[in-house]
Amino acid sequence: MAGYLLRIEGVNFASTMLDTTDLSTVRGASFLYLEAITRIDKILRGRPEVGRVETLSQGGSVGLFSLDLADGASPTQIRDALEAELPKSNKLFSHLTFVVDLVKMREPPALPPSEDADEQARAFLHNRERVIAANRWRQQQSPSLVAPSPQSMPGGDRETSKRVCEFDLVRPGSIRSELIKGKQNRCLSDSVNDRRRYGIDCKFYWYQEFLRRPLDAGGRAPFADFANDMADLADPGSDGPNLKGKIAVFYADGNGFGRIQDDLIRGKNPWSAGPPEHRQRDWDDRLRHYRRLLLERVLDTVAGSKAGLQQLGEMTKKPLKEEVKLRKPPGKADDKRPNLRLETLYAAGDEGMWIVPASLGWTLAATFFAETLGRDIETGRQGPRPGWTIGDHVDAPPLHHAAGLVFCHHDAPITRIQTLARNLAEIAKAHDRSQSLLCYQVLESFDHIGRDLDAFRRERCPAGIAPSQMIVPGEKMGPVLGSIDALKSGKKLPRRQLKRLALTLHMDGAGESVSALEKTLRDEYPRGADLAADLAPLRDCFGDGQALWLHLDDLWDFLVKPEAASAVAPAQAEGAA
After folding, report:
1. Taking 60 as the threshold, does the pLDDT of residue 568 lie above it?
2. Which positions ≥6 away from 213 have C-beta within 8 Å?
3. Do 575 and 336 contact (CB within 8 A), yes or no?
4. Rounded to an integer, what distance in angstroms lies between the CA atom of residue 4 and that of residue 20?
5. Residue 90 DSSP class
6. What confidence score (pLDDT) does residue 348 get?
7. Do 573 and 216 contact (CB within 8 A), yes or no?
8. Across-strand partners of 187?
9. What is the mean predicted confidence (pLDDT) over 327-347?
10. Which residue has the higher pLDDT, 327 or 524?
11. Quick check: helix, strand or coil at residue 254?
12. Which residue intervals of 329-409 are DSSP H helices?
């Protein structure tokens, strides 16, 4: 048998996942890409001409496999067969685009033991780059849009065939009689309709598959399902009227994970062992383990907060069962427990994106960094777990992330907000890859940013304040909420004084005018209270300079210490058990 590397990748997201602003459609495509990578593994293991199959990497929309083919088997025919079998295993895969390629592994020459390990690593990395290049070549030769088949064209007369999908505005659509987003007789393409239904139907089950455990064992979870759409995800405004209807979109991406992976494969780090293929697999297993722990903590954090649970009376639309005859988890059609205000758009590889109510945005980001850095979220000090590291040894270096956080209204175009969150993370990454940093943006209106985010950020900074001063360290975010809560509850820092400080900064720039107002603030501070001590956790996060007041002015409404959710009443849980 001959050894091969097989790589499958989902491509052309612009036309298969991000072609609509409908959240359920985007989610459905994301879930389908994740499922396709798992499905190709099962298809491979079921083919008679395929011998050994080893999963080296499996995350997001990419899968890498090492396998043996029987003598005489044609890799081209096998590749074509896999590409044909994938949509047969799930017809919804036909709405997506994939590239699949196999390359025969080139064995390294026989060398002395002292040089053999290095040569094996170089050979594996070379083979991996060859199969990636084959994927790219195939992608460039393939259409970026799946053309609707003749059977899916709606109707036969000229008038009917001119109908266009209301959601993607590209594909031909047909009238759907079911209730969709509060309306009947909407025109949707087969692609959008199928992806949307899948995104709604499988949300609950996706979490169970990802976490590898029942999400609601015995009906004792504090929630029965997830929020239905962006309006239901939005903040109810219980923590302040300025938060009502707003959401937080959080995106995080690993810093240099690709380089770290290659160094592990080459054996440059002492925290890896075995052949290069095993090092690749061990790295992928480590990341998948970390992602499961992270999602567990995110779920617990949101479900443990009052703002994270949407009670039945807060739902903006009719119950789910009246829309598209959607499936709820078994036995939960009449469940009275609330829905969870959490949307995981994806969590794979070294990146993830989540949506929560605006009042939980800072908490979500702080929770992410506390988990990945092994910090206590209340104090910012080292916690009981070590966080994400390259290896298990106590001296293994930590893994860092760059993140973007956007606060906006729930009806802002979700695809543009996703792009903005990614771009903010890139700004944080460019500032310093050796730390875990966050760059945020508060939006009252999306249109005013324009195409140049860097220029926009420079214009928003007064004279004497650099845009880099508006980037915050992830490990310092947690203690901010307790400090802000003390300032707000005790009315030690009136909002009008904060506004005055920020306005002076914008008008006069950093300097003496702001320093004079800071002195006034100290003089008027409540007797017996220590302004410096109260501001210490804030200065740890936002810096010692006058940029502190800009941070507080932007984030004041969004820095909310979550109120704990009440326990699930037994009567509520009985109906779901």
Report:
1. no
2. none
3. yes
4. 38
5. -
6. 79
7. no
8. 175
9. 72
10. 524
11. strand
12. 361-373
In angstroms, the CA 34 to CA 347 distance is 10
Higher pLDDT, 405 or 225: 405
Tokens 């890859």 belong to residue: 433
- Rounded to 5°, the CA angle 89-94-99 comes to 90
In the chain, pLDDT over 90 holds for what percent of residues? 50
The DSSP line for 49-80 is TEEEEEEEEEETTEEEEEEEE-TT--HHHHHH
Q: Using an 8 Å Cβ cutoff, are 281 and 54 in contact? A: yes
**Are residues 237 and 359 in contact, defined by beta-carbon separation less than 8 angstroms?**
no
Q: 261-270: per-residue pLDDT in tens?
A: 999 998 887 7
For residue 55, what pLDDT is reported?
94
Segments in 374-472 forming alpha helices (H): 414-431, 453-460
- Residue 161 near residue 179, CB atoms below 8 Å: no
pLDDT (mean) for 278-303: 93
> Which residues neighbour 278 within 8 Å (Cβ) at sequence distance 6 or greater?
none
Mean pLDDT of the chain: 85
Q: How far is CA 212 from each of CA 83, 215, 225, 292, 341, rounded to the nearest angstrom?
A: 28, 9, 17, 9, 21
Which pLDDT score, from 0 to 100, does residue 332 have?
53
Rounded to the nearest 10 degrees, what angle do helices 495-508 and 547-555 cross at? 130
Q: What is the pLDDT of residue 324?
A: 35
Q: What angle do CA 382, 388, 392 make, to 5 degrees?
A: 95
Instruction: Over range 298-309, report the average pLDDT.
Output: 92
Instruction: Report CA torsion sign: 33, 37, 38, 40.
Output: positive
Collect all residues with Cβ–Cβ distance below 8 Å to 431 and sequence separation of at least 6: 437, 439, 468, 471
CB atoms within 10 A of CB 183: 9
How far is it, in rounded angstroms, from Cα 484 to Cα 478?
A: 11
Dist CA 66 CA 279 (whole Å): 13
Check if the beta carbon of residue 406 is closer than 8 Å to that of residue 415. Answer: no
* Alpha carbon distance 86, 32 (integer Å): 11
CA 333 to chain centre: 29
Which of 69-78, 127-136, 341-350, 436-445 has the least mean pLDDT? 341-350
Show the tokens assigned to 218: 């015995």
Closest CA to 371 of 358, 384, 356, 390: 384
The residues pairing with 3 across neighbouring beta strands, listed in sequence order, are 68
Strand 309-310 and strand 339-340: pairing? antiparallel
The residue whose two tokens read 């199959």 is 53
